[in-house]
Amino acid sequence: MWQYVFKRLLLMIPTVLGAAFVIFFMLRAMPGDVCELKLGGEGAYVDEAQIELCREQQGLNDPLVVQFTNFVGGLAVLDFGTSMWTGRKVAYEMGLRFELSLQVAIMATIVSIVIAIPLGTLSAVYQNSWIDYFVRSIAVAGIAVPSFWLGILILLALLSVSDALTGTRWTPPIDYVPLWKDPAYNLSMLIWPALATGYRYSAVATRMMRSALLEVLREDYVRTARAKGLTETLIVNRHALKNALLPVVTVIGIEFAFLMGGLVVTEQVFNLNGLGRLLVDSVTQVDYTMTQGIVMLIVLIFVFTNFLVDILYAWLDPRIRYS
Amino acid sequence: MTKLLEINNLKTQFFTSAGVVQAVDGITYDVAPGETVAVVGESGCGKSVSAMSILRLIPDPPGKIVDGSIMFDGKDLLSLSDAEMREIRGRDIGMIFQEPMTSLNPVLTVERQLTETLEEHLDVTREAARARALELLNLVGISEPERRLKQYPHHLSGGMRQRVMIAMALACEPKLIIADEPTTALDVTIQAQILELMKDLTRKLGVAMIIITHNLGVVARYADRVNVMYAGRIIESGSAEQIYHDPKHPYTLALLQSVPRFDHTRGEKLKPVIGQPPDLTKLDDGCSFRPRCAFATEQCAQAKPPLEAVQEGHISACWEKSNVGLEESAA
User: Fold this and answer.
1) Contact B56/B85 with Cβ under 8 angstroms?
2) Which residue from A40, A49, A68, B178 has the fewest beta carbons nearer than 10 Å?
């Protein structure tokens, strides 16, 4: 087992390197650079020499190989460099948003699990009944509805509901306080984006849960369990669920990694200063170092989540023993 | 002697888009306490469905028991509630399935799968259930039972898994065990071991057994009585001796002749049963075996032959049964 963990961790290195290579050269293929934009972005006249000086300082005039080596060399010691736009450390800028994004991602994943597993199970157990149709419509709606739109609806609903109940209009606070400082305040802000995105991502997991469970319920060992005279509840909970969870775990794991950096529009709706927004900003600013830093962080989270999912597999299915 | 199980005119049908499949079309037989009864027939003749019907394990939809009665130990199984039926399953009637590879849950330990039956039906503690599980593994001849309890099915060989299945079926000391092709998926050498074990245990514990098989060798050695099924019906029934040495139905006869035997001369070709079994959605009024039968006459197309006695305890459903016999056809 430990040998497997070690091997698996080593295998992350080429994946991360590949991603670094791709993002580095894709960024370089973009037209324009940060110096042109920063100095002459407003259309003002800038001395060509000044731009050249800026490029020299940012290291943009170095050969690509040198730039790439610097980038990867920094990665090796977890140094993401300095933002070309703000001049602050990339790690510092990311750190400001990381906590928020991580919390939203975790909460949204929990929402998604809490919705998907029970609903998917009900849907499979009562296949082709009204419960099943109801759950399936909820799931299809979740796939069809963009989470930012749902977010706007939630905000509007909060306004009118609070108005009707208390006479004053309430929306989630828009300043971020860390969870450990003021949990109630923090949650009153982040629960709404978590609900909006969690519901969105539960949709795929619900359908996965349903189809996986339906398949498992047709297995021979479920028939054996019935022949033993076990109750249907016990059969589903003990015999079927654990077997059906494997594909669901995969889907949820991938979703979690995506949630860390992919919530650009939802962050906009709820006015959250998260990683997604930082990423989009840094791309429009042609801020190479910042963009690279965020993408690499997301890659690391992706790779690590996949690793955790694999470990979870071994726990769910004793036939999978890594050696 | 009072019967343990009496199946009367059981009809199970599957309502599919291709039509109504008459999988079991009115079968009647009984099992005495401690008796081993074989149900023989080729694939798709309804033998498994008839067994699953006893435990009401037919997937519904599409399957449905449309007619008949199943009396077990004084109770009509078809009129019991689901909860009452659950109490019978696993406690009074144990079941052994064909595929030991897929019939055990891959993610649960052997112990869990053995003790859950006990915990469900008997009021036992976890420790008592564990002790009983150990005892059962010993009984079915599994070595190192302590270690095996903690293992998962994929650690066990096919034969060992089938032993675990047998242990599970025996857990609550049932009165009847239904074994659906228990050895089909196993190696020939293991088959014999498993059959011997089942025979031993049923004798020793006085458990009645219905053994479903397409293997006539199994029938000859292990069954007291034999029901031969064809196209959802029992077409011949008698003691193993009678069926084996004096078949009175052309289908039974053809089956016996298709089995390789040691006393045949080398190089002699086997005689397969020619043709295909009928489509169970399109059965007509005549005898279902008629298209494949060497004895068929005009009468066979008119009406299905009833099961009638040929001798004491030996019945056959054939209009020409007096002409059917091993000697005549061999000549």
Assistant:
1) yes
2) A49
